[in-house]
Structure formats: structure tokens, C-alpha cells
Amino acid sequence: MKGNFEFWTRKSNRSLWVIECIDPNCSWRLRASKIVPESTKFVIRKYVGVHSCSLLNRNANHRQATYVVIGEQVAPQYVGVEKGPGPKGIQTFARTELGAQISYYKAWRGRKHAHTLIRGSPEQSFHVLPSYFHMLEKLNPGTVTRIEVDGESRFKYLFLAFGVAIRGFRYMKKVVGIDGTFLKGQYRGVLLVATAQDDNGQCYPLAWGIVDSENEDAWSWFLTQLKEIIGDTDELALISDRAPSIKKVISTVFEKAHHGACAWHVAQNIKNKFKCADIMGSYWSAVNAYRCEDFTGYMIEISNRYPRVAEYLENEVGFEKWSRCHYPGLRYNITTMNMVESLNSMLVNARDFPYVALLDVIQEKMSKWWNDRRIVATAITTPLTPSRESELRPRFAQSNGRHTSQLNPITYHVKGGELEGVVDIFNKTCTCKEFDIDKLPCVHAVAAAHHAQVSVYSLVSPYYTKEYYLLAYGETIYPVGSQSQWDVPNEVNHTQSSGIGQDRPPNTPSGNGSR
């Protein structure tokens, strides 16, 4: 192929294969036949490897440079990576490595074929999904998987939660962000995720789902599975965007948990709906205000300039959904769903993979995160995680200039600075509200602890400690290995589903080119 010589098949059957140069006067030819009649292997019996034809017969648009051949040649470049070369990169590869000029469309089809060789086809993915889930559960004890099909055994939903994450959630703040992102493969679908946030601000994925579309039925099914693994208590906070399908279902499935809106999504809605980006400073100050008195001041600023925005925030969204000081539950310092958005961006290159290949990427990433973070946790030398230590230490210096007086065995009055505070070191509260909401001692609480000769670390939420951080990442997530090594019972192997109802027409490349 690299020499731009083309050949044609003179004879091909189950026992013989003969190819010759397209020039009938050329001596180049190859003849292969089976080793023995019952064998599946062929051996080359005759090969004349020198072309005696004219250079005029060379053709860069090689007839043997089919998309299948191109795909087979570039397939190794997709092993172990999420992206690999695009169609233009494959065109360059074909030209420099194979000596063939191919169209953008052929390069695109070659890329698609390479993906199938490495990651399997969507149909194969549906076929193997029950076995894949069986192996995940077998190798990762406590893992929860679910597959839902319709009356015709067509795939509807799947759910996956690794046992390691379920057990580790005991050591995480009970704040869970939920969101969905559209998939781009042949059968499309929507990837759903529920994730906590560790104390270094990193996502801690609890559960994954794939559903046919983002609607109330799909969210209800996913959240019902989620409820089974994380429970439903008034300590739990669920944060989402303001999509109606999520908002309605959360209150139905989780009766005790508190629902909050992502402050960033609310901000985007304000900018898009009211065209008032210049008010965002006051909005974010209102979001982050610990005391209702401060919040009211920022809302007056917003109302004076944009009355419709203030009305939207109060009546349509509700202060209790996005405001830190009005939130009825425990949200700590988490006001946005950045941890969910970061997950979606990390998977952007895998969103067109078949489902099992996508889940493999998720498993690989989570395995790496757990290992890397466990190493970090082991190396921590302070009682708290580095982010909390760096936040708490300046408060020690700030507390030195405060005057503290004891009001009763557990209550202290701290003066000095811009704001006074009355601290209850038993119930871990302060009138500044920072201690109450963040569960990390404010400057007043640090001063009170020093006066009471109490360790300030005893006032910190255990979710901020090195001990909890290490326990959250103390276990390992294991891969399933190659399919040839799987040990799957027959009843699981025979459980199969087909694609989602109606798949979309095969996607087409954005570039131009002949077939």
C-alpha cells in the first residue's frame, strides 16, 4: 500500500486466496492456502514481491485503503486513551505511514471502526452489560448495580454505585450534587451522577446512572436507587440545577432531606433572563452571607436596581434554596455544583463511547482518584486536612486581639474586630453564624477555646479531619479485567437487553469529503 500499488483478488474461497497486481502484465502475486483442509490457518505458498508494472499504475487513492483497513491500522492509537486522533489526524497518518490519500469521510469511518475494535459496538455493550455488572459486584464487594428494561427487553436505565464509595460516604459531608449530561453515542441517552465533595474540594462520586432521557420517570428511578444507598435524613442536602424534572422528584423521593439550588445556575438564569450581569457582585454577596441581617442589605441593593431580579430570587427560586443563611439544612460551605460540573468535563471525550466502555473509563478514573488521594491522606501530618488547616490557622492570629469573657460554663462573649460574637462551645454555635454553618471554628470560637483551655480541634467537624479523609479513601476500586477472564454464571450470561427504543441515525462527520 505504501508504494501505491493496488491488487485485485483473483480467487478467494474457504481454502484458497490468490491476489495479483491490477496490471495483468505485472509479475507481483501472492498465493495462500490452508495448512490442512480442517485447519483455520493459511500459509503463503507462493509470493512474488517485486512489481514489474509501469509507475503509471500507481494510485495514491488506493482501492485497498478501505475504512476497515484504515481503522485496523490506527486502532492501537486508541488503546488506553479517551480521545485519540481525529479524522484529520487519520488523514495525515494514512498519507505519511500508508502512502494513501483518503477523504475526510473515509478517515471518519476508519476512526469509528477503530473505536469499535477497541471499545466494542453499542450492540455488544448492551449484550455484555449484565456480565460486566456481575464482575464489578464480584470484585468490589458491596457494589450496587441495577438494569431496567421495558416490556420488550429494551434497555431503559442502569445504576452503578461502587461499594467503596458507599462505605466511604460515612466520612463525607452529607451534601450531594446531582446532575445529568447528554451522551453522544449511537443510542444517545443521559448520564446521571450523584457526587459528594471531599474536604479538599474534590468530587467524590457516589452513584452513576444512564437513562433513556432526562425526565421525571428517569430521575425518580435513579433517585430511588440513590436513596437505598445513602438513606434519607434531615442531615442530607441535595443540590441540583433548577430543572423542573429534578425539582419535583427530589421532594417526592426524599421526604426528609433538604433540596438546594446551585447558586451558579441561579446566577446564569439571572444573567440570561434579566440581562443584568452588573448585579452579580451583590448577588454573590447575598449567596455567601452568614447572617440574615447582611443578606437583607445585599437584597435591598439588588431590589433598588433590579426589582424583578429580587422578586425572582424571593418568589420563584426561594431564598431557602440558594442563600446560605436561609438554607434550612446543613450545606456547609458548598453553594454550587462545581464538583458535578468538573465530573462532566472530565468525561467529555468518553460521552460517545458504548455504555460499557464509558463505565470502564469511570471505573479507571475512580480507581486512580482513590489511590492518589489515599497517598495524599497518608502524608498529612496535621489533625485536619490541608485546606482546613490553612483556613483555621489565620484565625489563631486574629483571635489574639480579642477580649473574651465567660458568661457560663459553656458560653463566652468575644469582643474586638468588626463583629462581636457569643460562642457556645458545647453546641458549637456563634452569633456570627460562621461556626454554625461551616462547622469550623470562627475567630470568636477560636478565642473562646483558648480562654476555656479547650483544644480548638475538638470543636471542628470530624468531616474535616485527616482521620475521616483517610477512611473515605481507605479502600481500593478494582477493574474487571479482560472479558476472556470473566467467570460469569450462565443465568447472568443469558440475561441480555437490546438498545434503547429507537436509536438515532448514525452521526455524520463535520468535514466534507467523498465516500
Can you describe this structure in just a few lines?
This protein is α+β, with helices and mostly antiparallel strands and 515 residues long. It contains 18 helices and 15 strands.
Rounded average pLDDT? 87
Q: Roughly how many Å apart are the termini? A: 19 Å
Share of helix among residues?
40-55%
Strand order of the largest sheet: 5-6-9-8-7-10-11
**In terms of structural class, how would the helical and strand content be classed?**
alpha+beta
Could you give a short account of the major beta sheet? Answer: 7 strands, mixed
The coarse silhouette is elongated
The total of helices stands at: 18
The assembly state of the depicted protein chains is: single chain
Relative strand content: 15-25%
Alpha carbon gyration radius: 31 Å
How would you portray this structure in words?
It is a single chain. The chain has 515 residues and is α+β, with helices and mostly antiparallel strands. The chain has 18 helices and 15 strands. It has a seven-stranded mixed sheet with strand order 5-6-9-8-7-10-11, sandwiched between helices. A four-stranded antiparallel sheet has the order 1-2-3-4, with no helix packed on it. A four-stranded antiparallel sheet has the order 12-13-14-15. Helix 1 packs across helix 3 and helix 14 packs across helix 16. The longest helix is centred in the last third of the chain and has 25 residues. The two termini are 19 Å apart. The C terminus is likely disordered.
Topology of this protein?
Blueprint: E1 7-12, E2 16-21, E3 29-34, E4 42-48, H1 67-74, H2 87-98, H3 104-119, H4 122-139, E5 144-149, E6 155-161, H5 163-168, E7 175-182, E8 190-197, E9 203-211, H6 216-230, E10 237-240, H7 244-253, E11 258-261, H8 263-274, H9 280-288, H10 292-305, H11 307-322, H12 338-346, H13 355-379, H14 386-399, E12 403-408, E13 411-415, E14 421-424, E15 429-430, H15 434-438, H16 443-452, H17 466-472, H18 490-493
Parallel strand pairs: 7-10, 10-11
Antiparallel strand pairs: 1-2, 2-3, 3-4, 5-6, 6-9, 7-8, 8-9, 12-13, 13-14, 14-15
